[in-house]
Specification:
Elements: H1 2-27, H2 39-73, H3 77-102, H4 107-131, H5 133-139, H6 150-153, E1 164-167, H7 169-174, H8 176-183, E2 189-193, H9 194-204, H10 209-227, E3 232-236, H11 246-257, E4 260-263, H12 266-274, E5 279-281, H13 282-288, E6 298-306, E7 313-316, E8 322-326, E9 335-346, E10 349-356, H14 357-369
Length: 370
């Protein structure tokens, strides 16, 4: 189909050029017969010449058309629509500005400057239309009717509230976001970028079995969020050319939406904070709701492995908190009673340091005797 279209275009162009130019060129040749000067003869000859030339141009033009088609297929409909509208508005403004410039009757200015203005305004309009399309879309979105209790129930976006929560790949794969959302502690609209969806699909198709399981778990979590009643989940298909990495694209998207990033990624957390983008970290939330332990509190744990120093043993609470037990190396795979000596809060989580309850009782008995 593309080849036939190229041939037809060449024939039409050749016939048009032959009809208009061939008679004038032949008329300069005094020995030319009269029938050769006829425009119809020129049209036929021009069409024939360009028809033969088209066979040499089919392959390069087909490749160029394939590249253009591929480039447009990767762009979203909203990107093209808002970009085209912005370019049209830019062209209209350029025409309005070029009218008084053309009235100056200055050779260079009236010919060159309008062309520069036209190209420049079309480009600026296209860029503004694509980069601000979410804001433009919200301007023309019909607002719901006001209710009597709107001032109480409908909170506006401000410094303390962000409507849009942009989900990161790590938060989706982790899965705890589903439980947190079900409890109602997070409100608003959850946004999943198509870049995150592509990354999840890439992980789910990985040759590594562990990565493949994590990727499929992430896709299952997304489906569960979408089917959950009362949860607003939206897909964002906007292109973000300002960055190449997915994490930076999410930062730019969050800025556009005036939202917050939901993540488990420590590095993304720091990058977003540096760019003044609010972050909701699931790990920080989990650490905040863990039960608080104080020195002197007793607990019963099972030592599951050796520690890194001296005769330490390592145990874990039900919520995953690590407990480092002094002299616990000698009680491997045993349930023992320990007493908390101190705790340490880190970005990775909370660590509890403890020692054997029998040793603490021995120390207390010695103090009483003294």
């Amino acid at each position: 189909m593309v080849a036939k279209l190229i041939i037809l275009t060449f024939v039409l162009v050749g016939g048009s050029l032959g009809y208009n130019l061939f008679p004038e060129v032949i008329s300069n040749w005094q020995a030319a017969p009269n029938w050769l000067v006829h425009p119809i003869i020129g049209m036929l000859l021009g069409a024939l010449i360009f028809y033969l030339m088209s066979f040499q141009a089919i392959r390069p033009l087909e490749k160029a058309a394939a590249r253009v088609e591929k480039a447009f297929s990767e762009l979203s409909i909203s990107y093209l629509l808002f970009g085209s509208l912005g370019a049209i508005i830019g062209l209209i403004l350029a025409v309005l500005i070029s009218i008084p410039i053309g009235a100056l009757n200055m050779i260079i200015i009236e010919d060159v400057v309008p062309l520069i203005i036209t190209v420049g305004f079309a480009y600026i309009g296209f860029q503004l239309g694509t980069s601000r399309r979410e804001e433009i879309r919200r301007l023309f979105t019909p607002k719901t009717e006001k209710t009597e209790n709107e001032d109480v129930l409908d909170r506006k976006e401000g410094d303390s509230y962000r409507k849009y929560k942009v989900l990161d790949t790590s938060a989706i794969i982790d899965g705890r976001i589903l439980d947190v959302v079900k409890t109602g502690f997070l409100e608003g609209t959850f946004v999943v970028s198509h870049y995150v969806l592509k990354e999840l699909q890439y992980i789910a198709d990985s040759s590594d079995s562990l990565k493949r399981v994590r990727g499929r778990r992430g896709l299952d979590i997304l489906n569960a969020l979408q089917k959950e009643y009362g949860i607003s989940l939206e897909m964002d298909d906007s292109d973000i050319p300002e960055a190449e990495e997915v994490d930076l694209k999410l930062v730019h998207l969050t800025k556009r939406l005036d939202g917050m990033i939901v993540t488990n990624d420590y590095n993304l957390n720091k990058v977003a904070e540096f760019q003044n983008v609010p972050v909701l970290n699931i790990n920080q939330l989990a650490n905040a709701v863990k039960p608080v332990v104080i020195p002197g509190e007793e607990m019963r744990v099972m030592v599951v492995k050796n520690g890194t120093e001296r005769a330490q043993g390592v145990a874990y609470l039900d919520d995953g908190t690590m407990v480092v037990v002094e002299e616990g190396k000698y009680h491997l795979n045993e349930r023992i009673d320990v007493v908390v000596t101190s705790s340490l809060q880190t970005n990775a989580g909370r660590m509890i340091f403890a020692k054997l309850l029998n040793d603490q009782k021995t120390i207390d008995d010695q103090k009483e005797k003294a």
